[in-house]
Specification:
globular, single chain, 10% helix, mainly beta, five-stranded antiparallel sheet, 3 helices
Length: 183
């Protein structure tokens, strides 16, 4: 497994496993504490694993947590997703930077999203299972959502949005969220 720093988002990493493939399929390690530790992250900091299943065109995000934020490891374990990270940490050298990725069950790559960054994705396949390893217990009172179609972000979602939660559809603009976070 190798770790590659994401230049557009300070502190973000892409962890790419080395799959062993044969006639049965493949086997790969999707989490390696030593590799995570080698880039300065604490592998024991992650306290909760979650899984979402989405169908083609479903959009989830852009989400982040207020307060201390929430760091997460994101992996598409089945299917393919278009994944987006936006840096909302005012003291970051990549503040307001954005990075996009295609994560898939084929590669099993894992993206580390630092606390203070917004995250969202769109399912590109009929079924896309996305797993999250999160460093804090979820507190719904700290949930923050940014409009996925905010023109200031101009995220190039690859498909028409077929479905999104009511919360995601009614989310405020980036400018409004930044004002809220400053308080």
């Amino acid at each position: 497994m190798k770790a590659t720093e994401v230049p557009a988002i300070s502190g973000a990493y892409l962890f790419e496993p080395t799959p062993y493939t044969d006639e049965r399929g493949f086997f790969c390690r999707t989490f390696d504490a030593e590799v995570v530790r080698s880039v300065g992250l604490d592998p024991d900091a992650f306290v909760q694993d979650s899984l979402s299943r989405s169908v083609r065109g479903v959009l989830r995000g852009l989400h982040l947590r207020s307060g201390a934020g929430e760091a997460k490891l994101v992996r598409c374990s089945y299917g393919r997703i278009f994944d987006v990270v936006v840096d909302l940490r005012p003291d970051s050298p990549t503040y307001l930077g954005r990075a996009t990725f295609e994560l898939s069950g084929e590669t099993q790559a894992t993206l580390y999203v630092p606390a203070g960054c917004a995250h969202g994705f769109q399912a590109l396949t009929g079924t896309a299972d996305t797993s999250y390893r999160i460093d804090r217990e979820h507190d719904p009172a700290e949930d923050v959502t940014i409009a996925f179609d905010d023109p200031e972000l101009a995220i190039p979602w690859p498909l028409p949005v077929t479905s999104a939660s009511p919360r995601d559809r009614a989310a405020p603009s980036l400018a409004e969220v930044l004002k809220q976070l400053e308080k």
